[in-house]
Amino acid sequence: MHVLRSATLAAVATLLLLPPASAEEAAAPATPAQPAAAQTTPAAPEPTAFQRALTAYGQGDLATATSQLETYTAANADNADAMGWLGFLYLKQNQAERAVTTLEKAVALKEKAGPRQEKDADTYINLGNALLQQNNNARAIEVLREATQLAPNSSEAHINLGLAYSRAKQYSQAAQSYTRATQIGTQDASVYTSLGYALEQSGKPAEAAAAYRQGAQMDPANATPAKNRYNLLLSQAQGHQRANRFAEAAAAFGEAGDLASGNAKPTAYYNQGVMLSRAGRQNEAAAAYRKALAANPRYYDALVNLGFVYYRTNRAKDAVGHFRTAVHVAGSPASRALANANLGAALARSGDRAGAAAAWRRAAALDKNDYESRSLLAGYMLDQRKTAEAIRLYREVAHIRPRSAPAMNGLGLAYQQAGSFDAAATAFKRAIALDPRYSYAHNNLGVVYEKRGQLREAMVQYRRALNVDPSMADARRNLARFNRQRAAR
């Protein structure tokens, strides 16, 4: 069997945001607002390289500012303000790893120096920002909570803490942080969008809609009935989704797509396709995915899922084309691995087994834990009598899933083809131990016993295979042949 994998529901956002292109296992949070690094200028203690760095920063020369601060901190490693500024500059240049290391030093120096002050919150905010860039949400939450304690009236601290909670899928806490930022008086409309999304995910659609409307009112360019309707449709769609009312969710996503513009349009149509597919309406799902691709021809998730629908509806050649495109537009090794794995399945169904094997080989190289691609590739190598390669691949498969009876059965078949009957028998016995009702392993162990002249043991295994699966033709033929030979004697 060729196992395909589809992409899942994409994150949704209001029209005030661009939703992310990637999909998560469930509806993932749309990245609300990128946290802004604190800009408060730490006090420069002396007109040295530190002061020259601040002057260069003020002139927009980040490279000189960074170089000067690196020189200064090398000689003044205990200056917390200088460390904080250097970490901030690394962060401005998207050097998250160096920013985290430097800002952690700055925080440690400030904590060692004695009671912290409100202005120290900037260093904690910047450290939280850098940690978020590294997807270290737990540590970011810890640091940003410190920032809100040092500066309880800093909207920046609460906004960034809200983002950290949202990324950790702690939506109730995220909503509390965003709410506090609005109470302080932020004028950033996207904060209300982020608040709305956190409230949606907390199961509070009415409050979410109110937050969305407030955000639209703060941004006149977006304050139209259609956009408010769009936000409400998203709330309704997600409510239907959580209740497994997939047809109703699809209708809401589809209407949202008709109202949307920019990147929000293909995302809404894509989610409509996911819901229609879950409702079993594959032809309509394909139409929704095609609408998403009309709006964004490089939409990876829509390409994968449309290919998946074509595969399931026996349009393998159409599936091949979409999976090939998905391979080309994939933005990460994991995405390319998934697209290649599915491409292999579609090529195999189209009759191009050599092409399928090449695609599975690429998928396996991209993903060291890809069980399905390795297993299918190993089966192909076995059919081509490339026994050594089949053994190597089945060993990898068994390593990935050591408790998989099919993996051990495949390894046994490869050993059997190589004439290593003892190793084959061991593998088949291991498969039976893992799953006593795995009929193929019983039958294959019977074949090995018969080849080794252990006829009584062979007959026992053939019978066990048929006891488990009375319709198993191979075991029935083997037992019938065995009985004819015994009667002839």
UniProtKB/TrEMBL annotation:
Q: Which GO terms describe its biological process?
A: protein O-linked glycosylation
**UniProt TPR repeat ranges:** 80-113, 121-154, 155-188, 189-222, 266-299, 405-438, 439-472
A single Gene Ontology MF term assigned here is: protein O-acetylglucosaminyltransferase activity
What SUPFAM superfamilies has UniProt attached to this entry? TPR-like (SSF48452)
Residues spanning the signal sequence: 1-23
Aminoacyl-tRNA synthetase as UniProt keyword: no
Q: Which PANTHER family match?
A: UDP-N-ACETYLGLUCOSAMINE--PEPTIDE N-ACETYLGLUCOSAMINYLTRANSFERASE 110 KDA SUBUNIT (PTHR44366:SF1)
Stated name of the protein: Uncharacterized protein
What species is given as this protein's source? Answer: uncultured Armatimonadetes bacterium
